[in-house]
Amino acid sequence: MIDQYVPSARLPVPAAVGRAVVLVCVFVCAACGLVYELELVALAASLIGDPVTQASVVLAVMVFAMGVGSLLAKRLRCRAAVGFGLVEGLLALVGGGSAMALYASFAWFGATRAMLVALAVAIGVLIGAEMPLLMTLIQRIRRQDPGGAVADLFAADYVGALVGGLAFPFLLLPFFGQLTGALLTGVVNAVAGGVVVLWLFRHDLGRRARCGLLVLNGAVCALLALAAQLVSPFEHAARQALYGADVRVSVDADGRQLVLTGQPLPGSRRSGGEHLLRFFVDGRLRVSSADEERYHEALVHPAFASGPRSRVLLLGGGDGLALREILGYRQVRSVTVLAQEPGVVDLARTDPVLARMNGRAFADPRVRVVAADAFHRLRARDPGARPYDVIVSDLPGPQGPDARRLYSQEFYGLLARALAPTGRLAVHAGPPDLSPRDFWTVEATLRAAGLATTPYAVGGRVSGHATASARPALPFPGDGNGEPGRVSDQWGFVLAAPGTTPPAVRTAPPPERPALSALTGRSLSSAVSRAGARRMAGLPSSTLMHPRYDE
């Protein structure tokens, strides 16, 4: 039955054209709404980590808030045109500025999760208020069966969501970036709402309401345009707040922000104090020149201590620092680098300081870089291809963004298949002191994939304890230092090999340079004992269907 409460509207165009304008507005608003949603998920995953949890939080909170917004919109149906104009103006402002607000909260206050929930609630309430008001407006153009009107509105809404979902990764992110893309979406949202209210339904508005909505839409568009002009200064100020005043390089690549601060003393790869070089990915510390050499030697050298070394596979390691250690062995004939982040490789090649630290490893003719997803690349590998003598997994850790796949039993099964019968696999497994369950889950998962394992924990870590800025750095997800006051002085590794005999953990430094005194056979023996003292037995392996790592 048609709602008799809804009066007919005086339109400047025929009813059919008016309906088309409203449906186009529904299409545009749906596309913008989904862009806001995806923007929050993507930015929160970059800043906080754990994309599954961030997506769940945003979706759940936003859908709940949409229901609240739909109920609240019932009070605006008597003045649907004015209400819709207000809703779209506010949605354009909040949604368009949401990326900036979330990034500012992360940079200056660290309260990212609270801001994420607040923005999801606000955007969800405003999106939820759209459909009841649009239903009222379209019924005012031409009364029809409510079921048919709902079908038309939702068809336009779902198609708009499709376009918005595709535009975000393929248009907005690559051409405009996260901040400018969200601001541009807000402008489009405000213009679409203004066309419906200030043009199509202008006769429904009194002079005062019309002037008020015109000022609101104009102010929103002006604010968003001004914010777009200030994106670069804003990002610069945020970087200063995050990393201190010594930011030397900042680039966006692969949808991530890469930042280098400081530089080592001339002629030395290791330095400290004000000359300390740090490499950040999305605000999280990835490399520090204060201790990177110790980390990469502890990761690489035990895997090269015995057996053939001719063919090597390096997973991750786009900074070239693990590659530097691998290339120190004369027996190495070829190294394939499966780069999860090609932008990091480009920076490691072109930045003079980082290139000096990694010994210009990517210029070595023995190195072949493959920009591909490691899981899919190994799965597509020809079973008859030559196996690798050594595989080094220099991935962020079992709580990184790809932990569910790249620390799973299925992935380790692919690595075991690619290993020679006498091969060795070295895996960075996170700190055993702060994340013991994750560390021992990695070890259990390797054993479940048919590999014999020897875990070890190397001390001497100093990075992550402080940064050049006033606020502590947020280390990379999975390194166990995500909570204030909780820092680790250890790195955890697992050395694995085919068969049933656990491989021996000992050092074999390349002959081109002497071993560091801190990494000796005795220190590695202590590292094995240190890890074994915290052993957690009986843990299940982590699989694609049942990931076991803490988020």
Automatic annotation (TrEMBL):
<keyword id="KW-1003">Cell membrane</keyword>
<feature type="transmembrane region" description="Helical">
    <location>
        <begin position="20"/>
        <end position="48"/>
    </location>
</feature>
<keyword id="KW-0812">Transmembrane</keyword>
<feature type="active site" description="Proton acceptor">
    <location>
        <position position="394"/>
    </location>
</feature>
<feature type="binding site">
    <location>
        <begin position="373"/>
        <end position="374"/>
    </location>
    <ligand>
        <name>S-methyl-5'-thioadenosine</name>
    </ligand>
</feature>
<keyword id="KW-0620">Polyamine biosynthesis</keyword>
<feature type="domain" description="PABS">
    <location>
        <begin position="222"/>
        <end position="498"/>
    </location>
</feature>
<feature type="transmembrane region" description="Helical">
    <location>
        <begin position="85"/>
        <end position="109"/>
    </location>
</feature>
<comment type="subunit">
    <text>Homodimer or homotetramer.</text>
</comment>
<keyword id="KW-0745">Spermidine biosynthesis</keyword>
<keyword id="KW-0808">Transferase</keyword>
<comment type="pathway">
    <text>Amine and polyamine biosynthesis; spermidine biosynthesis; spermidine from putrescine: step 1/1.</text>
</comment>
<feature type="transmembrane region" description="Helical">
    <location>
        <begin position="213"/>
        <end position="231"/>
    </location>
</feature>
<feature type="region of interest" description="Disordered">
    <location>
        <begin position="499"/>
        <end position="551"/>
    </location>
</feature>
<dbReference type="Pfam" id="PF01564">
    <property type="entry name" value="Spermine_synth"/>
</dbReference>
<feature type="binding site">
    <location>
        <position position="401"/>
    </location>
    <ligand>
        <name>S-methyl-5'-thioadenosine</name>
    </ligand>
</feature>
<keyword id="KW-0472">Membrane</keyword>
<comment type="function">
    <text>Catalyzes the irreversible transfer of a propylamine group from the amino donor S-adenosylmethioninamine (decarboxy-AdoMet) to putrescine (1,4-diaminobutane) to yield spermidine.</text>
</comment>
<feature type="transmembrane region" description="Helical">
    <location>
        <begin position="54"/>
        <end position="73"/>
    </location>
</feature>
<keyword id="KW-1133">Transmembrane helix</keyword>
<feature type="binding site">
    <location>
        <position position="296"/>
    </location>
    <ligand>
        <name>spermidine</name>
    </ligand>
</feature>
<protein>
    <recommendedName>
        <fullName>Polyamine aminopropyltransferase</fullName>
        <ecNumber>2.5.1.16</ecNumber>
    </recommendedName>
</protein>
<feature type="transmembrane region" description="Helical">
    <location>
        <begin position="115"/>
        <end position="138"/>
    </location>
</feature>
<dbReference type="InterPro" id="IPR030374">
    <property type="entry name" value="PABS"/>
</dbReference>
<feature type="binding site">
    <location>
        <position position="319"/>
    </location>
    <ligand>
        <name>spermidine</name>
    </ligand>
</feature>
<feature type="transmembrane region" description="Helical">
    <location>
        <begin position="150"/>
        <end position="173"/>
    </location>
</feature>
<dbReference type="InterPro" id="IPR001045">
    <property type="entry name" value="Spermi_synthase"/>
</dbReference>
<dbReference type="InterPro" id="IPR029063">
    <property type="entry name" value="SAM-dependent_MTases_sf"/>
</dbReference>
<dbReference type="InterPro" id="IPR036259">
    <property type="entry name" value="MFS_trans_sf"/>
</dbReference>
<comment type="similarity">
    <text>Belongs to the spermidine/spermine synthase family.</text>
</comment>
<dbReference type="InterPro" id="IPR030373">
    <property type="entry name" value="PABS_CS"/>
</dbReference>
<feature type="transmembrane region" description="Helical">
    <location>
        <begin position="179"/>
        <end position="201"/>
    </location>
</feature>
<dbReference type="GO" id="GO:0004766">
    <property type="term" value="F:spermidine synthase activity"/>
</dbReference>
